[in-house]
Amino acid sequence: MARSGTGVGRRVVLLIVVAIAWSVHPGVASNLPMTATRIGGGTAAVTACDSNGFTFRLAVNAASRVPSVNVSGIHASCAGGTLRVTLVNAGSDVGSGSTALPSSGFSGTADISISPLPTSDGITAVVAVIEGP
Amino acid sequence: MSAGDRRARSRRHPAARALALAIVMAFVDVSGASGASLPITAGNLTTVTRTYGASRTCTIGAAADSYANKASAATNFGTGTTLLLNADSTSTERAFVRFDLTSCSPAIPSDGLVQSAKVQLTVATAALATRTYELRPATSAWVESTVSWNVQPTVGGPTSSTTVSLGTLIGTVVEWTATSDVQAYATGTLTDLGWRLSDGSEGIFLGTPLAFGSREAATGQPRLVVTYLP
């Protein structure tokens, strides 16, 4: 009886090992119960570091193109974030740039170099986004 | 032992029960980890949009203008009806002109966008040579009634240049692009002190002057035409 029990145990162990290996095989991933509810179940709080808006001052060079944008009035709590500026002409992006706002000693102002350089008569709006901090 | 007995023993085997529990937990862990490891974190996202208003065009007459002559270095020509430019080495002539941008309505805001700005002068005597004239921003103050060759404002680098051809007739409007300067004046990057106009290659032998109408002229006064987005 002892030998028979050991044989059954070995077969059970072998079966279990095979089952585990099969269950974690990448090809089975699609069978995992990853429902929309499980994946999207969490929530993320997204807040703004500045609620008073910015002031944009565009530079225009001798070729009547816009090489840079000065953004001022940025709240100190935005320090450490990344500022992205996009120049828009009737809904289409015509130039953009970004810069990291320093974490310490931030003055509330940033100069963004724009690429490519749009002409000053081909801009209808400026959009700025700060990601973080 | 029958096959039924062996199945019954295997179900009761302690090792089998322990490992069965382990495999169940493994499935639970795999399925649970799929949702728990998603990178959903709290954070800041700030968006600001500045949409410009409809395009406006503002035409301004000169608030002050004059010219200076090297041969009459102490003389002021602020009340004259012409502005003279001359590359001649002994009687070099330069013109100065200033416009009041605040007269545009609505005002050009400091966060506005200048799409185009042109300084326009009207030829008052036919051009006797083909010459290129440059526009430079004044970087120090000057007064229409006192500016002279001896008392000239300092200037920045050329903003733009325009060539006037031999034979250009009286009444022809000549213009210089000043978009970059006017945008800088509007944003406060530069102080609006007007411009200097001069020959791009001064100091030649026997230069010939070219005359434009001044703000005191009956017709063809200097103008600044600005198109901007408030």
**Average pLDDT for all residues of chain B:** 86
Mean pLDDT of chain A: 81
How many beta-strand elements of chain A? 7
Structural class of chain B: alpha+beta
Strand order of the largest sheet of chain B: 7-6-9-4-2-11-5-8
**Class by alpha and beta content of chain A:** alpha+beta
Distance between the ends of chain A: 69 Å
Unreliable spans of chain B: 1-40
Approximate shape of chain B? elongated
Total number of helical segments of chain B?
3
Q: Name the helicity range of chain B.
A: 10-25%
Main features:
heterodimer; A: about 130 residues; alpha+beta; three-stranded antiparallel beta sheet; B: about 230 residues; two-stranded antiparallel ribbon; 11 strands; about 35% strand
Structural write-up:
- The complex is a heterodimer of chains A (133) and B (230).
- Helices cover 20% and strands 29% of the residues of chain A.
- Chain A has 2 helices and 7 strands; from the N terminus they run ααβββββββ.
- In chain A, the strands form 2 sheets. Chain A has a 3-stranded antiparallel beta sheet with strand order 2-3-6, with no helix packed on it.
- In chain A, strand 4 and strand 5 form a beta hairpin.
- The longest helix of chain A is centred in the N-terminal third of the chain and has 22 residues.
- The radius of gyration of chain A is 29 Å and the shape is extended.
- Chain A starts with a helix and ends with a strand.
- About 9% of the residues of chain A have low confidence.
- Chain B has an 8-stranded antiparallel beta sheet with strand order 7-6-9-4-2-11-5-8, covered by helices on one side. Chain B has a two-stranded antiparallel ribbon with strand order 3-10.
- Chain B is built from 3 helices and 11 strands; from the N terminus they run H-H-E-E-E-E-E-E-E-E-H-E-E-E.
- Helix content of chain B is 18%, strand content 33%.
- The chains are: A alpha+beta (133), B alpha+beta (230).
Describe the secondary-structure layout.
The complex is a heterodimer of chains A (133) and B (230).
Chain A: H1 2-23, H2 36-39, E1 46-47, E2 55-58, E3 68-72, E4 82-89, E5 92-100, E6 110-113, E7 125-131
Antiparallel strand pairs in A: 2-3, 3-6, 4-5, 4-7
Chain B: H1 3-12, H2 14-36, E1 43-51, E2 56-69, E3 82-85, E4 93-99, E5 113-122, E6 131-137, E7 160-164, E8 173-177, H3 179-187, E9 195-199, E10 210-213, E11 223-229
Antiparallel strand pairs in B: 2-4, 2-11, 3-10, 4-9, 5-8, 5-11, 6-7, 6-9
